[in-house]
Records
---
Amino acid sequence: MKNIAKIIMIVLLIQGCKGQEEKTMNTKEDKYAMLNEKIAFCYKKPTNEQFRKKILEIFNTDISTKNETEIRLSTDKYPETVLINYNFIIPFNLHPMIPDEESLQKMDKEAIEKTYDYIIKNTCNYNKMIFNNDIHATNWIKKNSLSLINLAQEYGYTKNKDWLQFAFSKSKLHEPTVLESFLFGFRCDSIFKTDGGDDCKGQWQLRKDMLDKMIEYGAELSQLSTVANMVSNGNPESYEEDTEELYAYLMAYCYKAGQSGIIEYLYDTNPKMIEVFRKKDFYGIEDLEDFTDNFYKPQNKRFGLSSIGPDPYIAYGVINDPDGYTNLRDGKGTSAKVIKKIKEGEKFGIETNTEEWWIVVTEDGTRGRIHSSRVTVIKE
């Protein structure tokens, strides 16, 4: 009888432990199941294939290659998280707010409703924006969340003009570290650790498409040269590309963004950089080669510094334009790129005046062409 009693006790203990284990394992599932039940009323879920394609497009992650049911899309402590079983994404920073089964038992009804109200609104509008292209949901996200900024900063997503322009307008791009966070993405394939640690040993990669969009949409790029210097002085092993090549590329974009004075300063203070770039064929960057060969002038040949040597200009002038300014272009014709605007009263040096489009140099050393009809010569 004693042996039979022992056997019964052991069986009961095993079943009790098993039940407790199943309860623990289901806690997370129960938490998301409750959220899914609420989300189902406001969010039109995509098909599995539509869900996979959109995540691949925006977050650059192919969830079909993952075995988990809960996939974290970045190495942040609270990243966007894909719930495979429910076909929706939990926006970043919502994880700490979602109560588990134990927490729910300690909360009163009012607290539960208040907590879930925000979680549901945020999650629902986020997924409607991502998967349903819902304009009202997008406007809610713009007003109540930082998700659009995060999509650009964390994932480098550039294919939605409205989202990207909003992210640019609401970010402090005049701060070098913020600008850098948009321009560089961190490649990492390691598994995120839930304790907040990270064993990733990836590298930073320049987002060239982001730079193109920033110039196209007129984003703040006044600190681009500072970012270039940060890269140049950083650890070369931290970047996928050669740091000299990255520096040259960013300098070329300074020129493309109308900041040619930055490259001039680089060449003036470190003339050897010209030869470094030339030996590398300017890394195939045509804008940088064009500026170096056709527009850069050494200091002693620049306007305002003629006392160093012979005056390099045949005359000086000011603009003659009823609009109060004239466009300085990088070539002949009105289709040529505008380098900067010369305002009324600004003096400039005239380098050539044999054709309709004269080559002039402004006081800050910027060299380009303006039409002869827009010039009033003030000194022969």
Note: The CA atoms of residues 96 and 377 lie 69 Å apart.
---
Amino acid sequence: MRDLLPILKTLNKNKASPLLLILQIALTFTILVNAIYMMVLKERELVQPTGLAESQLFSFRTHLEGSDEEKNAALDTDLADIRALASVESVSTITSMPLTNWGRSLDVGLTPEEDERITHAGYYGSDDTIVDTLGLRVVAGRNLQHNDVVHTYFDGHTESASVLVSQDLAHKIRPNDWRGVIGETIYVESVPQKVVGIVETMKSPWRFWYAYDMTVISSVREHYEESIIVVKAKPGQREIAMEEVQALMLKKPGRQLDAFKSFEQIKTENLQADYAVSQTLKAVIAALACVTMLGIFGQARYTVNKRRKQIGTRRALGATQADILRYFMIENAVVSLFGITLGIIIAITANIYLVNYFGLTSVPGDYLIAGAIVMLLAGQLAVTYPAMIAARVPPAIATRTA
């Protein structure tokens, strides 16, 4: 590394341009590492499993009329008619659906005291068919049974009943023994509910909520003016099932259907903003990387043009093209390392601030190391062409006057 000391002397003599490039690399590194980490988090959210049989599900709202008994009977008829269709595997009524941003969020605790609440959770009221319809997996305890089901007109969460809880909620209630929640009485909005089973994954209606993974599925079936029906089609027959169910329901006098969508449509609409953010972050990352590489390229070209006579003199004194190429590559590596080091310091400082004041997740050290390697390689790639131009400067140029 005999070129290192001359390089450091040259950089110390001409500070302005290298310092500007070091600052550019440092700031770019800080922004890139954080932007890439944010993009990775967003991408993970986009593919996060919901625990549902997504490719088979669709749902809709329907309006019921008459007395409570008539609404209940009409709902029973609707479910039976849909279940009889050849393209349908299962059907249930439910108070809301995951990712719809509409539903109930309730306090959950081991006592009825409000100040002893453990967490919030999303609440779903349904019946003994809901696990099969949604495609949920019971990992402890048992499924809801027909004799668990309670009928009510409205506000089913005020009724005591048997409930299923998500595994994440079970972990929250009993961190050291989540299966121990089976058979316990929990209090949902201070109302006692008996936990009979735990489902592996079930999401609440609000993805941005801190309790997104915490859910309670109650065996209370509500029947009022507007009911939500969720249908599980047979594999590969969802489009056919949607057409048949829509035609069937619209034949009923005075019946209206709203929000008639496949679950994938619901999910796409909910994730649309995150998808846009992810694409924007990708564009920002690409733009920053290009700007930085262009900055390194421009700085290297400027340096080569400025030192042409000096390069020619070195060539006349016996320096080979490989020596000149190596010199500029090492010089760029030194500048890049200074910039990356400063960028790591800024990134760590910014991370500490963001974690302490905004509760954001800190960027893992792996991202800093990977970012440093990428920035160094990008710098070497950007300087390669100007360094090759420098290597081709003829020795004769040393004899020319300025």
Note: The mean pLDDT is 88.
